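Practice problem. Given the sequence and the SMILES for 2-acetamido-2-deoxy-beta-D-glucopyranose, write out the predicted structure.
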Amino acid sequence: MTNGGNRHNEPASFWTQANALLRKNLTFQKRNVKTNVRLILFPFVLCILLLLLQNLLNKQFDKAKNKCGCICTKTQGEQCLEKKCGVQYSDFDQVGACPITNPPEWPPFLQTPDPQYRAVRTDFLPFSDFPNPLCRNNGSCPITMLFTGTNQSLGEVLSGNMIPSTFGINNTDVMDSLATNVLGSASKTENTNFLEPAFFSDLPIYYLQSQCGKNSTFSIPIQISTTSRQQELRCAQALRLWRNSSSEVNNELYKGYRKGNTARKINEIVAGYDFLNSNENIFNVSIWYNATYKNDTGFDPIALARDPKCEFGHKIEDTVSSSAAQAHRVGHL
Ligand SMILES: *[C@@H]1O[C@H](CO)[C@@H](O)[C@H](O)[C@H]1NC(C)=O
Ligand SMILES: *[C@@H]1O[C@H](CO)[C@@H](O)[C@H](O)[C@H]1NC(C)=O
Ligand SMILES: *[C@@H]1O[C@H](CO)[C@@H](O)[C@H](O)[C@H]1NC(C)=O
Ligand SMILES: *[C@@H]1O[C@H](CO)[C@@H](O)[C@H](O)[C@H]1NC(C)=O
Ligand SMILES: *[C@@H]1O[C@H](CO)[C@@H](O)[C@H](O)[C@H]1NC(C)=O
Ligand SMILES: *[C@@H]1O[C@H](CO)[C@@H](O)[C@H](O)[C@H]1NC(C)=O
Ligand SMILES: *[C@@H]1O[C@H](CO)[C@@H](O)[C@H](O)[C@H]1NC(C)=O
Ligand SMILES: *[C@@H]1O[C@H](CO)[C@@H](O)[C@H](O)[C@H]1NC(C)=O
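Answer key:
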């Protein structure tokens, strides 16, 4: 052995060691050739799978039923040169994918309880000015609202102006004229209001009046986009009750809740209004309303709630003309 070859007791040179290690590794890898092929192919297989998935999804989303409906407005032989798409060209499956350029406008609604749950006189409420429980038999119970504030005579004027005594509708512009009245619905709110559930729930729409006449239920044709349907309108008498303090209002609202009384009865009051220190110059009001349908539990997505401020805002502001409107909510139930 010459030239720096391995003598018996000498350590092997770096190159010999590297060489040996390489051969050993190569042999080892040769034995595990399947594992190596799998290792190398894994990313490719993954990419191919993703590609296939992408193609599949693209194809699904490209299907006519997942796209807004269109018609051809200009053709050249077989080819379509110009398309027009929209709700009016779509079927039921396609409508959801259409852009909404002019969302419909809806009149505001109060969240009113079903007639059999509206507040009536009971043992667990200390006041006797609630309606007679017999009204539950024929669904004629009024909708009760509570009012309080520092100046009762002003409060009576303000609350009196909130409830109309006549109902008017203009047949040429039904939606707009509905909004000039005070409406209520027992329908559940949703996460969006693109289609107002009050018009799509088969429940009657209530119009609030200080007193209901004899023939107070009727049907009107309502035009929504391109379709027309009949909608039942029913009168609901609104009962305004004055309380001397906000704690009385709070107490009664709470007792109307099924778990707020020992009889486990539902005795719903639509809303409570505290006019606080409002006078000719200041308009300061606090509103209680039922936010159950908002689903603000921390688990569900927060839905919409019908806020009685929207319904009456303009009516109260018409009364207190030069006022700094400062409506705020104190709490929900
Ligand atoms: C409903 O019942 C009450 C009490 O019995 C009665 O005064 C009222 O006239 C009835 N209303 C209708 C619409 O039948
Ligand atoms: C209560 O309001 C009425 C009507 O706005 C007003 O005439 C009266 O002075 C007010 N009373 C008090 C104590 O502020
Ligand atoms: C009804 O509405 C139309 C269009 O907004 C208007 O021209 C007409 O004067 C209204 N009719 C009444 C009675 O208000
Ligand atoms: C609110 O929650 C209830 C019960 O969890 C559920 O049935 C309802 O669909 C929810 N509403 C919305 C608009 O998500
Ligand atoms: C109530 O309305 C119906 C149908 O619109 C009518 O036939 C009936 O005469 C009305 N009744 C009263 C008391 O106005
Ligand atoms: C409010 O207070 C007045 C005067 O103290 C009293 O006459 C009236 O009965 C009270 N009203 C209610 C609903 O408690
Ligand atoms: C609020 O509304 C829900 C749903 O209608 C009802 O179950 C509940 O009793 C109401 N709460 C009160 C305090 O009226
Ligand atoms: C409105 O009422 C609240 C609660 O009583 C009070 O804290 C606030 O100062 C009032 N605002 C005005 C402008 O008077």
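Check your answer against the key. Residues 68-97 form one domain.
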